Amino acid sequence: MLACHAAPAAFSAALYFIDIRYQVFGGGTANGPGVYADSLAWVLGLPPRHLGMASTSLPAVVLFIAALWILRREKSDSWIFFAGVILVVPVLLAVFRHSEVLYVRHFMIGMAFLLVLFSFVLAALYQRGWLSRLICVLLLAGYFTLNGWHTVRLFKYGRGHYAEAARFLAEHTKRAGCHHQGDHNFRIEFVLQFYTNAAMGNKTARYYGNSPAQSWSKVAPEWLITHKESFEDPSPPAEQFAMTPATSTNL
User: Fold this and answer.
1) Using CA atoms, how far apart are residues 106 and 45, in angstroms rounded to an integer?
2) Cα(113)–Cα(203) distance, rounded to whole angstroms?
3) How far is CA 73 from CA 89, 114, 122, 128, 136, in A?
4) pLDDT tens per residue, range 85-141
5) Residue 212 predicted with pLDDT over 50
6) Which of 31, 48, 62, 225 could be 182's S-S partner, Cβ–Cβ 3.0 to 4.6 Å?
7) How far apart are CA 219 and CA 180, in angstroms?
């Protein structure tokens, strides 16, 4: 037993001391426990929160309970594993993390195993006659339709159009250089640094954050970039943005 786990344990320890312990909290939106319901909706391809949290996550909850019941009826101990990896462990990790900054990606492992668990429901339906087989086919068709719709949107809109946004800033900037500020230094500054060199051509770009070392004095930035989650209203956060207690921008 020890020989089997020695190499993975050594690798995990080395990864922690070399990289993981230096990671810092980058901030984010406080989504709270509702993000777990969003992850359940995404498993089936349902649009989270567009139709209400309960209505989009309830089908996944029903299938989850039905699959566990099928495994217990077959006297299989695997239901304990699925219940742990899908429900118990993610919830405990969220609780011990002591933060409401949670995202769907934090539950990706449980989401993958939830799909495996759903296959037991489909298999049980398929073995119960032609009507149950029809329901099984309809469920699969709905699953592929919903997820296909999300895939089409991904190909159409991409993951953010950051290069296009940088080119827009360069083309519509009235000054020689593109000066901009944002409401989240960690995210906005590093993303712009990656895209501005290639997208802005010969025009220089400078980001002004909200720290004293980055604050502007004589020349105010021409652009204000704010960030929001995909499910939030993309309108400006307010009519006035205070970068520091002494400086503010009217939108």
Assistant:
1) 17
2) 48
3) 24, 18, 16, 16, 20
4) 998 888 887 777 776 777 888 888 889 999 999 999 999 988 888 898 999 999 999
5) no
6) 225
7) 11
AA identity, residue 69:
W
Tokens of 19: 């990289």
For residue 131, give the amino acid letter.
L
Here the tokens at position 81 are 């594993």
- Are the C-beta atoms of residues 181 and 223 closer than 8 Å to each other? yes
DSSP string, 1-33: -HHHHHHHHHHHHHHHHHTGGG---------TT
d(CA 144, CA 146): 6
**Helix (H/G/I), strand (E/B), else coil: 183:** coil
- Count of CB atoms within 10 A of residue 110's CB? 23
Q: Which two tokens stand for residue 52?
A: 């209400």
Q: Which two tokens stand for residue 190?
A: 């590093």
